[in-house]
Design goal:
The protein is an alpha+beta fold. The protein is built from 28 helices and 60 strands. Strands 1, 2, 14, 17, 18, 19, 20 and 21 form an 8-stranded mixed beta sheet that branches. Strands 43, 45, 50, 53, 55, 57, 59 and 60 form an 8-stranded mixed beta sheet that branches. The chain has a 5-stranded antiparallel beta sheet with strand order 4-7-8-9-10. Keywords: Aminopeptidase, Hydrolase, Protease, Serine protease.
Amino acid sequence: MAHLVDEAFPVEGILPKRETGATGFLAKYPEYDGRGVIIAILDTGVDPGAPGLQVTSDGRPKVVDLVDVTGSGDVDTSTVVEVKDGEIVGLTSRTLKVPASWSNPSGKFHIGLKAAFDLYPKGLMDRIKKERREHLWDPTHRVALADATRKLEEYEAKNSNSTSTLEERLLKEELQTQVELLTSLDKKYSDCGPVYDCVVFHDGDTWRACVDTSERGDLESCKLLADFFLEQQFSRLSDADMMNYSVNIHNDGNVLEIVTNAGSHGTHVACISAGNFPEQPERNGVAPGAQIIGIKIGDTRLGSMETGSALVRAMIKVIERKCDLINYSYGEAAHWPNSGRVCDILSEVVNKHGVIFVSSAGNNGPALSTVGTPGGTTSAVIGVGAYVTPEMMAAEYSLREKLPSMHYTWSSRGPGPDGALGVCISAPGGAIASVPNWTLRGSQLMNGTSMSSPNACGGIALVLSGLKAQSVGYTPFSVRRGLENSAQVNDTMDRFALGHGILQVEKAFDHISQHAQCQERNIAFNVTCTGNKRGIYIREPRHLEKAKDTAVSVEPVFQEHTGQEEKIAFSAQYSLVCDKTWVKCPSHFELMNVTRSFSVHVDPRGLPEGVHYTEVCAYDVQCISKGPVFRVPVTVVVPITVKDEETLSVKFDKMAFTPGHIRRHFIAVPKQASYAVVQVKSDDCEKSCRVLIHALQLLPQSQYKSCEFEKFVTISDRGDTTQAFPVIANVTLELCMAKWWANLGETSLSYSITFYSAQLSQGQPLMQASQGIVRFDMISPLKTEDISPSVTFKHAVQPIRPVSHKIQALSDTRDMLPEGRQIYALELTYNCHVTKAEEVMVDCSLLSNLLYESEFESQLWMMFDSNKQLLTSGDAYPHQYTAKLEKGDYTIVMQVRHEKRDALERLRDVGLLLYRKLPTSLTLDLYSSWASALSAAKKMAATLTLEKGAVTPMFVTPLPDDKVPKGAGAGWFLSGTLSLAKEDPAKKASSVTFTYVLSENPQRSNSSKNGAKGKKDEKVKDKEKTKDEEYSEAVRDLKISWISKLPVESAVYDEVKQEHADHIPLLLARLQVLDTDKTRQKCLPEILTLTQQVVSKVDVNELLVYFGIKSDQRSDAATIKSEMDKQRGWLVEALVKQGCAQAEVLNTEVLETPASGESVTCSRPEITMNDLDNTLIELQKFADLTDAKVLPFSVKYSMARKHYARAAKFLLKQGEEKANKAADATLAEAYNKLGWHHCARYQENWLPVKYPPSYRLF
């Protein structure tokens, strides 16, 4: 049977251009393809080696500049070295061979180091880790493990009898340890990746940099690069990763900026807007003739999150490079629109410097008022919504059916919280386009307003290209009006998703050209309604009870450098028009260079349930055809009330849904309601349905996400789902039910929403531990409900204050705004200690959840361990960043930026909150009466019935002292929830935050009664001493405490020794100073002598007898125990130092190196391996070899025995207590001795990563 094959692939749907008129425009004006236009792509970075990003349509370089403004690619190259014999030593300790072809007149080289994984996005890092393990670790490790196992089996076969000698026992343990260690290393394998030396120098003309990607010092094989803008040169880190990189050099060679990608997103965006494929023109981007500047604003340290600092630096670069357009496919939810430090600077670039800023509107729909910042909330920015066409459905998504054009379900909708429309225009929101080479793909499908924005940006580039070619004047203001007034309106599309319409390139070009000489070309009209809002937005029931008059102010804002004569001459007469009868406005309005106002009357009474939108449009009476000059958007939401007062339910039966169909229900949440439950049931008996349930309420000065519920569910035929979420009483709730746009077929759903009111009358509960029993009243004002109250804590929160602060002026090339506006940085340093492994989160609550709207540029913080290794970073959104920490000391450095020093001065004492996740959740006991709480009698019943309107008290008792997290102190608090509902999902929805403030730690006593009596006896004994004796001992102890702080040649020791020669603490203090002295080798004989003295003064047999007693019942047992523990500590310390000295004597012949540098062989103490074995035997009587204080001896003993696996095991244990570079280097040496060279390489690679020379740069 013959098959019909359609040979014509719908290529137009791969990267759609026809719908916006871009295809027709290029057919008519082939040379207006973006030539002469520079687009700044602010994103995750652009790969200059990706397909389509090499040259423009007229042969110019496609990518003009590449910069990383985040700081994540920065390398500290402030260390300066000079070449010696054609070589320098890098910070990795590798020897770097300097090519003879390099010209460096000064002879000075700046060096630094960079781990490749600091440059990789997560996806690439995961791939390289897997490949490196498979190629560099697994094959060799399998052989080593098999060999070690074979040796152990052979030994056990030859020595089947029980081993008797120490040497035989140790040898068997060594072989066993080899197997155990190799097995453990394989399980704990964690690759640090390649680590590169970086070299920077000035060749007499410009700064140049070389990254040693060979990892062996072969700089000749590595590409020498200058700033990308100067030569458009880039290189590749390795053939394995395929990561292309470029460089920029700052601060006179002290900072090297390595530019890579934080993700594939930016390259995809760049190719949509301006990709050029000479051999495959059907794959071209929208404006193939445009040039690109790739600005990486996605910080790799934060998983590609943007920061305020990066955005401000990006704006500086945009101005410097004289960009025409910005594409910004990023954004976040903001608490208030159109304001904040970052938004102000973005707006300044548009209003003062004439750059057109295009941004994604957001992917947080379908509920209303979900537009993101800056795209949907900033007046200077053109926000773009995303829609999908039938051709895209066929080519990109391979749908079985072609559906009508529609907006994607997730495309964010307006209006903004202040009444602005939110979305400006719409464009196709999906494309198959190029992605970076490191993905190992040529192209990829991505969708989102992230894709509609570059599509629109490319279309605008075509318009600008034509305007420039025809010498037509324009400004961002005239271009925006041209786009809005020429956009294609589709009546079947939601206006809040569509904006003013779908971009039409040719119509926009014609509109701007025809009206280029209009007097408002250089003017932005700042339209402000009462309350500093940009529109009229009536949403809450209390505002619907009567008509409302709103004062509308219109201020003409002229572009920078507009002539004074033009400002004086400006005078315009407008006709004000609105197409809805429920809105009344004046018929005419005259405007000159001054702010003027008029009144708009809105009468929402009588409007049906739902959302209503209109605009007051101002037309120039001299030229009506150019469309509205400015607009006043008006939105009215009319909610329904809950009429069923018994169940508090609203039902919607048998609602039909087609693909992409959205049903919005606005409901006035009943007074005193606290949470809602939504139940959805499919009426379809044949197919499943994919549904997005989206509920949202708006609160003043609060981002929409704070009162949002969103759940994507698949409901099977005749299936159902139940969801719950908290609600705010008396605030309109939008319940949005949307069938997924690509879910084919018609579906019928029945659903309902039911409100509940169980809650605390006090709101969010706060309890002080010192309050004792605290009463909370539970109430259900609306109906009787069954509850099951519980209080659970998951975090202990420690407030920490900065230990230091400094304010400094930043780089004058990267961090100076126009007109010499220097940006300053406040760096705050915090210290914290972790007593055991735990997960932590850092929160600067003063600045948290504020980015674009913040008064400051950034709040980036980095956490380092005691060796300055960067462990984690975070920014404005703390809940996105957690870190698992081991026991140890940590430093947090936080940077906040602003151009005003006094603004930063106010933050110099700002605290942080350190959220420590509890190993197990803690709960508080709840009681139904004060008496039962006081006596800890019967607890509250598991299930209670709250009668409608009745108050039910709940008494909460403090957390028992033994449950308080160890180390917690005054000022700490526990953070958790109080839940009321009985079952999930309502249990979570009914939860409120519960804060429990801890008091001072209780003074616990570990002494028994006998112990207390013993201490009393000791005090009586002490009182028998005369004051002179007490004074003499105090002076002695003070001098002893200073011995370890003074040089080894100090006379204090000899002075005290004359009177207290047998005092053990004196001998130990001397041992301490000898042990840590730089010339320790020559001190070994004295160390051995002193340790022998200490050992001889401790009665070992008495200690053994005492510690052999199972239970001491003597009245002074505590005193005896204290004394015996002290003597055991002295003995162990002396034996450890003795054993270490003995091991070193066995391992070296050279004991003294005089100042002349000539080695002198001293008489060697008579030490044998038998002596070292005896020390081991004695030490093991009183301590384990894995004890922290014994580990130094355990390591040296094992190395002396050539038991390198045991040495490695002890070194690893030592590293768990506190990482040490020398110990890790010794560990690599041990691996080499064992022949495990792959383990040694692994360990050596980690050294520069774990022990960097300085803190990471911001």
